## 1
Amino acid sequence: MTTGGPSADVRARRPSTLAEGWRAYRNERGGVFGLAVLVLVVLLALSAPLLTDPAGLDVTRVEDAPLQPPGAGHWLGTDESGRSVLLLTWWGARVSLLVGSCAAALSMVIGTLVGVTAAHFGGWTDTVLLRLTDFFLVLPALVLAIALSTVLSRGVFTIVLAIGVTSWPQTARLVRAQTLTVQTRPYVERARALGGGHRHVLGRHVLPAVLPLVFATTTLTVASAIIAESTLSFLGLGDPSRTSWGAMLKSAMDTGAVTAGAWWYLLPPGLGIAVVVLAFTLCGRALETVLNPRLRGEGR
Amino acid sequence: MTDTLEHGRPHRSGTVPRTLGFVARKLGGAAVSLALVAVLGFFLFRVLPGDPARTMTRSAPVSAEQLAQLRHRFGLDQPLYVQFRDFLVNLARGDLGTSYTYNRPVTELIGERLGPTVLLVGTATVLAVLLGLWLGTRAAWRHGTATDRWFTSVGLTLWSVPTFWLGLLLLMAFGVGVGPLPGLFPVAGMSSPDVPPGVLPRVLDVGHHMVLPCVTLVAVIHAQFMMVMRSSLLEEMGAEYLTTARAKGLRDDAVRRGHAVPNALLPTVTLVFLHLGTVVAGAITVETVFSWPGLGLLTYEALRVPDLPLLQGTFVVLASSVIVMNTLAELLYRVLDPRVRA
């Protein structure tokens, strides 16, 4: 294992490593199930504009009775202004998935940067960054996200920022620990001895070794980011111009659908969140097991 | 992580100075965190909005004169460094400013709402920890069996459910009632107006109001404790001292209770405290759903306006209490675990 940069034979080995990983992943029943569900949900979310008419989302253009129970006209009933709950749920998936993945990606970038920097440069940098990470790790993330999305202007970008900025500490801890381990390996030492600078060592040796595990954690972060998005929308901090699952549940509560017993309005968005979050969780745990059998699904 | 490294050093020069050093380091770290909370609180609610007066009045049309008055009332017309200095001085005195909507001191408002939150969150956390540890132990001990799979699936599913949604469902099913089923529990608040006098009826009334919010919180929170306990115990179960214990002729039950569980409990304890932040998050949404008159509902009321001084107050109080609890846990962990101490 003393290869320098990615030489020809390393490049040749990469596809087979991927195939090996996929074979191991296939053995994780939960992971395969989660992945299947995710593919289905993503396809549905992407096809919403093709298969449905967004005019049905416009309050001013629907003429059906409000809070209708499920029936022939509307399979999942209608909301407080007569819109189809099925249509709302379908379109709501787009916001939840978009915000969840973007926020998780942002959290991954921040976490990786902080973790790698702390571990690689050590000394004071490490002390300060570790202190900061521990601070944000303990700080109740939702409270901070609420604060951020209250003072900034409403919108999808604000929500992504609020969740991304508050959910990176776990990734940073993990990346720091992994980087510390990787750096002691002989091939990294060799690269450094041969005069490899920070950029070379980090870009060619440390990051490629750390990233797979980061990817697994990020899959889990998407799950918690989707929950966070729905919670913020439920508290009325979401983008008012878009339908999301959390916003649907907020209007269900505000307009008395709960006291009216309108279960058809309450169940679909909640089940949507639960199914997507569970799917991401299952995928993330399966990835962790594949990449690091010792973890045994310790994440979260 | 650095602690374990330092304590792994071969030369051991007395336990007392090292313990003192550890305590000092933890307390120092907590002090830095609390200072960061204060700075962050100021930055979030005074600097980031640009013009806090405009943010607070964004839902209602106001004249330039009213805005100027508002700025003067909250000291927003001062330079930022003066505002920051005043904020710190007042914070040290326990003064969190005046609420914009209630026109009363924020400290007073928070003080009124603290009791209900501590009651609800405290009860729910204790129940969730007990339930989670018990289920986690059983799942790990029967690793790979149907029981294990069943517990894990239920736990993961509950963990994937947004707390507020579960609350809404329970509210509809057991508070309002569905179909022929009548509502069994109150739908909002902490007490009824028509309670007969006396201590016992009042306690029972509050308990009755607490059932649904408490069940919601326990259902969601216990899952993570269960998963942590399960994996922590699974790690212990491969240990050699368990084989020794079995070889001594101890029954399975005694091995589990006397040897495996106490050791697996320690990492779980720290994680329980690390997850206090999520408990606080759950409290905010659950109190909103059930109109429980605590800090969570106060936060929700504040963010709707937004009442920035009040929101700043709840932010500082919630964040600092989580930090304080965590530090206590880390100190306690050291007392509990002789391996870390030695």
## 2
Amino acid sequence: MGVAKRGRIKRLLLGLAIFLMVVIWAGPILVVMISSFKPESIIRRESLVLIFRPSAEHYHFIFTKWPFWQFLVNSVVVSSLSTVISVTVGSLAAYSMARFNTGGPRYSFWVLSTRMAPPAVLVIPFFIMFSKLRLVNTWWVLIFVYLTFNLSFVIWTMRSFFEEIPEAIEEAAMIDGCTRLLAFRHVVLPLVSSGLAATMMFTLIFSWNEFIFALVLSAFRKTLPLALGDFVTGYAINWGPLFAAGTFVMIPAIIFTLIMQRRLIRGLTLGAVV
Amino acid sequence: MALYTILLVIAGALLLYCLFLTRVSEHALPVYLVVPATVILVSLTIFPIIYLVNLSIRDVGIYNFHSSWPFVGLGNYATIIRDPEVIASFFRTLQFLVASIGLELVLGMCMALILYQEFKGRGAVTTLLMLPIMVSPILVGMMWRYMFSFNDGFINQIFSALGAKKLPWLTNEPLPLISTILGLGDPKWAANTLNLNYGLASIVITDVWQWTPFVALLVLAGLNALPVEPYEAAVVDGASGWAIFRHLTLPLLRPVIMVALLIRLMDAMKVFDTIWALFEGAPFTRVLNISLYNVGITRKIYGQGAALSILIIILVTIMAQLVIGFVERLEKA
């Protein structure tokens, strides 16, 4: 009897801990999403209001009175093109490093080291350099600058995917008359396609979320995360529209997490933990 | 228009490059495959750093940007390391690193141990807990700015609904009790000089909220990879649950915990967005990156900002060397 009771208490404590964790970690996200449907009069109220009639007024506001679509286009153009470049250029380099050990360990550590410094240290030279090139506040600058973190990410993750593919498969194709490049295109690439897709989604999200380079280099051609600052004014913060726009910023990341689940960890540790 | 030009140029360049690759000899292929990546990385990291070194030894700011930049040697470095604001932000960065990474490791381990238990809906709970990791840090900051907001914030609204006092989150009000516990005397002094204030606490909470699930995911991967035999032996020997955890699980998890610590260390050094969203660079919350932004971008004293950038790069390089050395030693062991 004593053992059964202790077991029940243990289950109860475990349940309580799980409940608390879910409330703390999923709660704030839910609060933002739900509050984006709160009418303005209720958001302004100082006491907690849990039950209210949902209203789409903040969404209406950001779609009609705020250049939401323009910011969305900026975000989509910048993050997708930066992803295309980094995935293409990066996987070719990663393949070369995985198969031919190009540059040796020193080269791959150098690639890794480029992403160790805080982005903030690059802000001054980037600002001056791209001002001189007259590229500030264009799509070009962010597409290019986002390669700083995307390219090294692609190289490191794709390298670990390529290393998993036995070289014998390519050699068989090459004996059949394929060139190395054709073997890469028709044999290796299909085998890493799921890893490639995951890597692509990571770079998309990283570029989508980026803030500091956009703040300095593209203040007049804002991406969505940067544009969230529009609702923070000296007098007050417009929480309603901020939550509505914030929900859009969040959606890709949440869909991504739902798709990736456990594989998240491999991407975030650059393949260090599988 | 602009978009078509961009698409055309990028697609054209990539196509031309692929076409070029089909023409080169099998022998030279490996080198040509890494050339574009290397060129891009050099122009985005090495070149700006050389430019930074050049800026850092000159007196250059918005006031003389379009005229000549006089050489000042290490003058900018001397100015910047004596700047009380920069010194304060250096120590604030250390405090932030220690407090948030420490909490993330402890809480992440607890979270992983809970998720390691068997219960109904474990997969769904795990996924729910992972949601914060990929959310844009700027939005995470804004989200918590709302949670912490004094009058209309969610946390204070819950507090007052429960009849508790509202707390001055996001301010430099001293944290209660802490200076009494540590025997520091005046709480106001501790809040202003030792950062024992609600502001830093709010920053730490926000960072811990976003990154604890990441640590938990790492530790969980480590737990799932643990060997079974030692546990069977321990159970046969009649070891208690705590003893098993303390003397078996913890030592076996050490490599994973170290990896988590090191990844978080390098990542937390990059912190900017969340703190910016919470405070927009209020002086009592500045960490190194935000001080750098303030000197280099807001006040436009490029020379001094460049000197501070170089110092941060040196600091990060030293940390990275320790990290890499450590990982290599770990792999050998």
## 3
Amino acid sequence: MLREGQIRIPSGCAISGIMNKKGRVFGGGDIINSIAVMHDRSNGLGGGFAAYGIYPEFKEEYAFHFFFDHTAIKNEIEALLKKNFIIASGEAIPVRKSNSIKDAPLIWRYFVRPKHRVLVKQEVDEEEFVVRFVMRVNSEIDGAYIFSSGKNMGAFKGVGYPEDIGEFYRLEEYSGYIWTAHGRFPTNTPGWWGGAHPFTLLDCSVVHNGEISSYDANRRQLEMYGYKCVLQTDTEVVAYIFDYLMRKQGLPLDVIVKAMASPFWHEIDRMNKKEKEILRAIRVVYGGFLVNGPFSILIGTNQGMIALNDRIKLRPSIAATKGDYLYVASEEAAIRQVCSKPEHMWMPRGGEPVIGLLETSQPTCVPVRTEQEKIAINS
Amino acid sequence: MSLKSYVTPSFLIERNKDRCIKCKVCVQQCANEVHRYDEEDDEIISEEHQCVNCQRCVTMCPTGALTIRRNPNELRQNSNWTAEAVRAIYIQAETGGILLTGMGNDRPYPVYWDNILLNASQVTNPSIDPLREPMELKTHLGRKPDSLSIKEGKLQKKLPPQLELELPIMFSAMSFGSISLNAIKSLAEAAKQEGTYFNTGEGGLHRDLYQYGKNAIVQVASGRFGVHADYLQAGAAIEIKIGQGAKPGIGGHLPGEKVEREVSETRMIPEGTDAISPAPHHDIYSIEDLRQLIYSLKEATNYEKPVSVKIAAVHNVAAIASGIARAGADIIAIDGYRGGTGAAPLRIRDNVGIPIEFALAAVDTRLRQEAIRNQVSLVVGGSIRNSADIVKAIALGADAVYIASSALLALGCHMCQKCYTGKCNWGIATQDPHLAKRLNPELGAQRARNLLRAWKHEIQEMLGGMGINAIESLRGNRLMLRGIGLTEKELQILGIKNAGE
């Protein structure tokens, strides 16, 4: 049977995310409890988490999380890493053996910085070099897969129910200021660890519920700009769109979400002249990045967390705030499980983003326009 | 001594004498003078040699007394020398001329649209009901920049000029001369009402049509007929016609008989003279020459109008299209080998060029490989027969389609393929005022409009079924397509999977 990457497998899902906008870290227990409530939204064939702020001791290094099929490939990769990077540390990611998680690959992490002379030789900046390295390993090297590559963040995922995956990776031992989680309901049985969410590139992670009908239009657009969609998953496409629009094009967040979930033309027609001109330009130029079909996504970055629905809200998502915390989940119960009395709770409309940025964020490539937008939550 | 013709009539006309009331409608309606009333015998006689099977008399007969059928008379069976092959030789032996024809290639080549199936949503992904939800077909044609610069809520640089279409369908180039003014008025009005464009062909823009300038694509072809500053300014976009699917590599010829006063004024040529478009543009012998013409036209119109370049789908179409994109065109129009024509040499129409399905797939793939797909919009034509063909074309990678034969059918054309005779009984491909009068432009506009609206609804239904609510999410979305009955190679060129995969 073909595994994910060789064939496209649609899936339904549950998602949940929690962030502290002051950047204070908290343990992984809450996010596990939250996603566990939505057990029935996944089917045991994929679960995962992304956590930000978990590696303060290596915050200048890129944290590569690897799946290896066997030791030989691990040795090969380590040689490749040594050639291109200064490795600050490398170890097996600590896991807890359990009955519910089977057939785990070798799971390792390395904290690395690209060697200066390699960058000079290739004439690219650090991030671009890392992106190309990840693309190369994932598309060209059999038996090795990088599933996390950002600074001071990490993805943890595998085949199983999300709460079991959380326990397996001992996430309660980590502390982060943003946690996102995913439980997967693929309509096929890939049984491949790389296929689980979140999908990440640099510090951008995506968990996603839905099936993107515009997949191939998006994929072909991205491939024009050098991305290789090796997994054939919707989530991968969303992550790349985000990376392209944010990192490569340097677009403001509000523009990115408007490109991915554009207002309808009849709404644009009612806007004032200035807004109309911008929105028209976004749709005309970035039409290939419009994400169509049902989706509810949570995007994590070092700067904050963004939730977005498709334009006509074909997948559920609900948001809440309490104190410095922002919650977004597929179901209200998942929020109430970890936050008994939210101060605000709302159902974002289709195409209406929830943008939660850290108060301390100093976005380099995310030009934020207003103070209001920076601290809060656009409701 | 004149030669006796060996060509037997292609059609038989059957007149039901019980029904015929001798009202002579058929006599008056037939410009080919097939029907004749004999006063002495009080009888209507039909001369079948002249009949082109345009169905005008059949449709207009008040008692339904007429039937036209293929002449059942048969030559001796021969799989190699078919009746058609033999007949062509008789005609050429009698005339010594090139065989002429009209409309598109009618040979039984595969129609690849019919070997492609569309997807629909089930369970994992809801279909969207266009009766209840917005379903957007708005399309923009023109060069798209690689990126936008937005600072402090303001767009730093304006978008290059774009044609805005309410639906991804435009009327393809048909000149005044090849078709009647009433036919053009019908299409122009329909384009205006439905928010799309018609194309002047190389016949210039008749003074009555300047009011439709905002919905006109004005063509500049090798004969340069009717091209002047006001003409260029009047249109919403300019199209350089290099070639046409029905007759790639050759020019055009509007016989002097069709060049009456209005045509002569619009084309800016003397009345009664032949209007001959050379095969190449004599100022375009290379891609760099094309670039010069593109930029001359842009200069002439202050960079306010997109410039399109229309080519026929030929073997090397992908590389040619890439060159055209790099030469500065904003839109590339590709016309497949089944595209129609007012007049073309039969052998060229039937044997030159490639299917639009392959050409489109190859061009879209090539432009993406070169990362320049966003620099041009792709418009394809060359036998778009229905809304499903359009959905498939867009999923293969087109931005919009051109329709011409379908549009003329909507106006009443019956595909008799005799457009080049100028005796179109439906008032479409003629300049004879008596015939042209038969097409009322108001009613024609209504028919053309209805066709656009019907197809729009159908496209919306198909899109919704796929779980898509904006046409840009279908563009190049080849996963929505599956092949049936195609070879590995054909699937590979189309870039689609087989049904069941």
## 4
Amino acid sequence: MSKSTTSVLPAVIVFMPWLALVGAMLWGKSRPGFAKIVYVGSTVATLLAILTLYPRAQGGVASTQKLVGIAPRVSLAFRVDTVGFYFALLLAVLWLLCAIYSLGYIHGRETRYYCFLSLNLSFCLGVALSANMFTLFIFYELMTLATYPLIIHEETEEARRAGLKYLIYSISAGAVILLGLILQFYYGGTLSFLGHGTLNLSQVGKPVLLTIFSIYMLGFGVKACVMPLHGWVPDAHPAAPAPASALLSGVILKVGIFGIIRVVFEVFGIELLHTLGVSLPMLIVASFTIIVGSLFAITQDNLKRRLAYSSVAQVSYIVLGLFLLSPDGATGGLLHIAHHAFMKGCLFLCAGIIIHETGKKNVSEMDGIGSRIPITMAAFTVAALGMMGIPLTCGFITKWFLGVGSIQAHRPYFIAVLLVSSLLNAVYFLPVVYVAFFKGRSPGEELRLSKRETKRSMLVPVIITGCMVIALGVFVTVKGFPYSLVEVVVKAFF
Amino acid sequence: MEHAAYNIDIANSVLPAIAILLPLLGAAAVVLIGDRNERLRDIVAACFSAGAFITCAAMFPRVMSEGVRLTVQLPIFFGDFRLTADSLGLVFASMASLAWMLATIYSRNYIQHEERRTRYHTFSLLTEAATLGVFLASDFFVLFVFFELMGMLAYMLVVHSQTFEARKAGVKYIFMTVYGGLSLLAGVFLFLMYAGGLGFKAHPGSAYLTTSICFVVAGFMMGGFGVKAGMVPLHVWLPLAHPAAPSPASALLSGVMIKAGAYGFLRLVGTFHSVVPAQGNIGLIASRSGEVEQAAHLPVFMHNLHSLGWVILWFGILTMVVGMVLALVQNNAKRLLAYSSISQMGYILMGLGLGAYMGAEGGMGLAGGIYHIVNHSMFKSLLFLGVGAVYFRTHRLEMSKLGGLWRKMPVTCALTCIGGLGIMGIPLFNGFASKTLLHHAVVEALGVGGAWIRAVDIIFMVAAGGTVCYVAKLLILTFFGHRREESAHEVKEVPWAMRLGMGGLAAGVVLFGVFPGLVINKIVVPALRPFIDLDPQSLHHLEEIKIFTLANIVAILPALAIGAGIFLVATRWDLFRLKLPRGAGIDYYYSRTEVGFLRLCFAGSKRYAELRATYWPMARSTGEYLYDSWKATGKRYRGFRRVALGRAMTIPMDITGLAAYIRARQFTGDIAYGVIVITACAALLALTLLW
């Protein structure tokens, strides 16, 4: 499938965000303004470096770089395949937007915030570009730790509690993954990603394979917030500052999903999973999460908490798509990684602007804020419609592929889950739009389009994500958009 | 994968795309001009909607007369997003763009007394684009996309005034729209699964055509289209939303957008016309009269179509009667018209149902339905605009407070009366022609359906009588008699633009009424082209039909008599103010369900919190107990080691131990929970392995 070329580029990309640390050391105290430029600049540089990989990733060519040999057959190594590139690109784009947004949003302890933001990007990229399960695990754990300072950034009691809860959940999950890693290495003999499943039934036997699978799901399921492992999500999101929650929901949850993707495609492989018959139980768990997560979201009054529960539900769309084990289902799931990142990113950034400009955290207080921050709320509306899967937004594309995928998998009843979930999304998102624009404004009052509804550095990312929600939903097949990459991935694995 | 006969004449043309693009550009232009130059903005809006109409008209000769289908591929979505103008879609598109143009002209003055005029024009034009998209869609995917967009965009027209009523109506509207959209989407997915494609034709030999799975598919699709079409029991949003919108928007909602639902029903029926049976077109009449010996060989899909038609027919009857009865007891003129729309959609569904019921011989029912769709879009828009004109001057919609306006507003009165005569079905006005066709369809079906169809015939007559009655009530209470309450506003004739808008529609009502033969031959029969299984003979019969015969005119007399009778009786005993108990409306139960569902959610989360409050401390104290005992052992152990390692070791250990203790005490509940989850997963796994 792919010819392997050796290149130092993947390793360089993974460590490129560390430039921000250099910036912090040199100018963090003396010239904070310039340091901020360095922080954003390092993200831009990373994005550009990732873009240079585009021609190679598009062709499905992997470039490998063995960094350190840890033990025989275990090494730290990077490689770029299409799915890794897709994820890395998404990471960099969203990180850039959130870094820009942070310029306006974050006040106080900036150096710490930006350092850990950049480190986190580096570790996430490490996960995306890892060449074997070992590297993935190492960076996964590092990412877990680097996220903690972002969650407790505001250092309130609530944030500390949420942060500790996060740590307890994630670190135990990490231990579980390590167990899976050991078992996989012992029975499979390799941890490398070879483009197909490395475990096989005849050598290992069904019980062991099922055990390894369950252990991996339990481990990665915590980050991917599959119920009942989602407990940290609704606490961590509202506690973190808005750009950090956008990243948490948009990307860091997806790192867990990325682990599941690797497990599905590169550890087990589609055929083996078919044989093991794990598809249906996972689909049921994902459906449960989708429906119950949405039901929880309905009852939340705190907007960010509501969005967090929505994330719990939406991330399981991806799990649903993957475990349909059909090409279109996988397409839908993989697409939703990017789609949900932009939609939920947009929503969280909007929630940040709402808090920053009006100080309101609860939906019940938001009457008429649409006249104060119209552009923000318009973007919020677009993203909310996307969550409901209205055509012309990217949410609809996901829904379409998942629907077609469940038909392909001969499981049409999972369409019902999608549709009920859309309805529930409408139940908890439309009231926000409704109170913001239509309620509590005297009839004579026109939209007050003040010149500056908020800082430009916060408004621009919101507008960009809002536009992306529509662009991804309309111009699906444009080169470089998720679909063109996902198509290659799915073709390679099915 | 469509049938060859239907595929012959297909040509590339950008016109369908332009028809949709023009209103979009118009919307952009309106936003750019904004409130700075209101006059220019209104003119631009009218021009762009006129442009859409002209584009549709330009497609008319090729599509209708020559039978060419014009198609264009757009570079969006998955690269096969096509707009196609076939004869059926184009009739709808032309009708929609005409009504939109006239309503936009009308709204120039009308909207002056509303706020947020730019927003109104923008969303009106956007909705027009989406509506034309529904009618020019080439397959169910495209249709669904535009259908959903139309529903969402029209929300902004419904809540435009942002009064309490409008917002309440908006909530109902948006949730019914979302629900309908999801039902339709389910139908589309299942259609894709069982019919082997998304085109309006099912793949020959697919499960959709050969098994009864088609009823599931059709059921979901009917759920989606039925919401938009105001089909009882899915009509609940309509009597709230149509009156709440500004009058030109009500005219479009009632005149055009509910037709998207009817159009969906037509396409659904059309999916069964996918295979020409080998031995020619066997219809029900032919098979029963023994002309064809193998009556049993009537293809399965024709049997299914027959049954489906039966269902649509009775939904239509239900819709017709419920709408009629509720229209009779309304006092608000726009609400009356909204219920009237429901009732008239019942006529249309009845026609389509009969068309499906009769299979290959269903030309008459389908033709009646299509003709009535076109007619209804004219007279209902006209009536809404007329009532809007009254509201524009008097600021009143309650008929009990109006009256005697014909002196002050003679032109409005005359034009509205034309619309009223149209909907009543008086000869020389368009309603007569379509109702005659529908009646012919009922009579044709008598030979197949027997007593049930006789009942349909009677109900049809009574409903027609009810229609006469409520329209008479509307016109008489509003325009004639004496003025019941003086208005604070100066009442005079409305400005020319509003008269022009109404005049255009009135001209249509009269033209389509005076030349029914022409309409049938040039518009209705070509529009039946996608129904490829229709018997050519019955189509020929349709082309030759005479509308203005004595028998047809006599046939409406009972309806008029019933109408007059109801009117006199109701006026005598004041039955028009009858209030139905709220439990009689299906809406009451929907609301109960919605509220119940939300209550359940909140009660569930409360119960969950209670459970947590009960068991969390338990889990925590257990955890703390375990931790404490562990710590005690640890202390002892450390005490033992202190001797060996000295203070250098104990200080850091105490500090970390203290920190961990405080933290861990707080989170013992979570830890216990995690242990439970992991144990449960392990137990499940063990169970799976053993099993």
